[in-house]
Amino acid sequence: MFQRVGKSEASVIISVDGTRVTARAGDTVAAALLAAGLTSTRTTPISGTPRAPYCMMGVCFECLVTIDDVGNRQGCLIPVSEGMRVDTQKGKREAGR
Amino acid sequence: MAMTIQQRDYATPQRRDYDTVVVGGGLLGASIAWGLARGGERVALLDEGDTAIRASRANFALVWVQSKGLGMPEYAGWTIRSSDAWAGFAAEVTDVTGLDVAFERTGGFSLCLSEREVEHRAQTLKRLHNQPGIVDYDAKMMERSEIERMLPAIGPEVVGGSFCPLDGHVNSLRLLRALHTGLAKLGAHYLPDHRVDAIAQRAGGFALMTGAGEVRAAKVVLAAGNANMTLAPMVGLKAPMRPERGQIIVTERLQPFLKHPVVTVRQTDEGTVMIGDSKEEGITPEGTNMGIAAVEADRALRMFPVLKTVNVVRTWTGVRVMTQDGFPIYDQSETHPGAFVACCHSGVTLAANHALTIAPMIAKGALDLDIVGAFSAKRF
Predict the structure, then answer these.
(1) What is the enclosing helix (H) or strand (E) of B76?
(2) Could you tell me if A94 lies within 8 Å of chain B, comparing CB atoms?
(3) Which of A55, B35, B124, B193 sits at a 20 to 30 Å CA gap from B338?
(4) What is d(CA B338, CA B219) in angstroms, rounded to the nearest whole number?
(5) φ, ψ for residue A18 (rounded to 5)?
(6) What is the pTM of this model?
(7) A93–B255: do the CB atoms touch at under 8 Å?
């Protein structure tokens, strides 16, 4: 759905639900997931409907994902780093994760 | 051709007389109005506006038995009666409104973080149960190992606690919404922005003067929380109150991990964790106190260390409706027949009683003193 603009910068390898994904240095997690072609990055806590990053500036909380075993993190505010483990979140966060 | 659009105007309802007017649109007033309307009465429910200080929107939502009644054994029996009636009441609310208020009677805990707290808790339960005339109910002390089987998330500092199988909880915000939804279906008139300034006795009943006009009814029920203090004397009753501030912390939604409510920590049906139970007297309702929130959070973390990394999404302050001695008041006026007053702290726990026991008495025109005689304000 999304295409990169500008020339390629240094790449960063992260894992998304266990799959190896190549992101660009300086990407936020949310940008990397959208660039990798994900159309949904979580499901909502009550009705379980799919959601994806929306505002990309820390306001809407639609981009919540689990990063390095910590749930409910705002993907649009956190830059990718080498070896980062990102998991899409199904519904509510787990206590202790 | 010009068209006139008929607007529904709540500020000037059609002048009509009611069988009963209930003052106060919170859980207490709405529960009593529910009971009256389901019994066929023409009911008006007067309320303040959205900015009213409203315990019904700031409470902890427990349907709670353990600890109730120390100093007044009748209060324990009254609480158990409501706890027993709650499942049926919740089913009726769902039946009328289609809304599930998430009532669960899972049994609940009070947790202790030191041997001293265990001893104090055990003594409290013993004193409660040793009172003459108490309805003996099953609340018992538990060892840590036994608690851990039911609440696997407890931390190492939890040394013991008490458990009562009658305890439970509900979604109290949805309960308030459901009662109001149901009242409309049952034909009751909800009149917001009708703060009562004066009550006059008239032939055949009462006239209530409000900023939005006069409302007349044969009977009047004062269920306005701490404001009953000023309303009750208008109809020859008294309601000595001492408002008390409480503070609550709410976390983000989590997968279910807490199967039983604890008196200070519970997980709601929608996943948030509520942490609360602070008490402050004589303070204004505005603002939160960080010192108190810190103590609440610290105790909750020691009980459930898994909360350590959880995000807090809200903290709030509410004002408890509290009578001078903490026990409910149900009373009827001798000088103004047809006027009743109801005050209680536990508008959630006692909602079933208010709809199913108190309302039918009011419909008949007199409280049944065999059941609620102990709660007269004459005790003050």
Answers:
(1) helix B73-97
(2) yes
(3) B193
(4) 5
(5) 85, -5
(6) 0.91
(7) yes
Is ipTM beyond 0.90?
A: no
Instruction: Please count the other Cβ atoms lying within 10 Å of the Cβ belonging to residue B339.
Output: 24
In whole angstroms, give the CA distance from residue B272 to residue B8. 37
Neighbours of B363 (CB within 10 A): 17
What residues have CB less than 8 Å from A13, skipping those under 6 apart? A20, A21, A22, A23, A82, A83
Q: With an 8 Å Cβ cutoff, are A46 and B270 in contact?
A: yes
Architecture of domain A11-88: Roll (3.10)
Q: What is the pLDDT of residues B16-68, one digit of tens each?
A: 589 999 999 999 999 999 999 999 999 999 999 888 888 998 899 999 999 99
The partner residues of B109 in beta bridges, in order of sequence, read B163, B262
The domain limits of chain A are: 11-88
Residue with tokens 């000088």: B335
Q: Which residues of B touch A94 (CB under 8 A)?
A: 254-255, 257
Question: What are the chain B neighbours of A96 within 8 Å (beta carbons)?
Answer: 257, 306, 309
CA distance B171 to chain A (A): 14
Q: A70 and B309 in contact by Cβ < 8 A?
A: yes
Interchain proximity B306–A95, CB inside 8 Å: yes
Q: Do A95 and B310 touch (CB under 8 A)?
A: yes
In chain B the domains, ranked by start, together with CATH numbers, are: 17-58+173-240+325-379 (3.50.50.60), 108-142+156-165 (no CATH), 244-320 (3.30.9.10)
Query: What ranges make up the beta strands (E) of B236-323?
Result: 244-251, 265-267, 273-275, 280-281, 312-320
